[in-house]
Each structure stands twice: as C-alpha cells, then as structure tokens.
Amino acid sequence: MSASEKKRAEWLDASFWDRLDRLEGRHQRVQAEHETARRGLERLTPNELEELHRAWSRYCQVIAELDETTAEFEALRRV
Question: 3-state SS of 28-72?
Fold first, then answer.
C-alpha cells in the first residue's frame, strides 16, 4: 500500500474508495463512448442529419404521448 493509499484509508473507509474507483472507471468508459458517438455524428451527411432530426422529433412526440397516457392511467387509479 502506498503512502497516499494509507493516508486516504485513514480518514475514509474502504467501501468509499471502492465506490470511488468503480465510479471513476465507469466515468472513463462513458467519456470514451461519448467521444465515439460525437465523432459518428460529425461524419453524418446533411441528408442523414435531416433524417436523424426527423426521427428524433418523432421519438420525442411519442415519448410525450406516452407520458401523457401514463399520467391519465395514474389519475384513473386514484379515482
């Protein structure tokens, strides 16, 4: 155990450091995925961008409708 590891272990328990290590690893993986996705979007042609925009708009409309109907179901359950 290095001096810094020993020092950090003195004031916080091991479970904290385990969670921190897992979170750092997850964060690095997500950053790499984000960079890959960003590069993929930059390679899209104008036609592909328009198609993506239409698909995203439709997706958002459907999610809004789903949220609305779910709220209506919940309102009926409370009656």
Answer: HHHHHHHHHHHHHHHCCCHHHHHHHHHHHHHHHHHHHHHHHHHHH
Which tens digit of pLDDT belongs to each residue from 12-41?
788 898 999 999 999 999 999 999 999 999
Q: What is the mean pLDDT of residues 47-52?
A: 97
Cβ–Cβ < 8 Å for 29, 20: no
Distance CA 13, CA 5 (A): 11
Per-chain mean pLDDT for the chain? 90
52 and 44 Cβ atoms separated by less than 8 Å: yes
Number of neighbouring beta carbons within 10 Å of residue 8: 15
Distance of CA 44 to the CA centre of its chain: 22
Domain boundaries, the chain: 1-43, 45-79
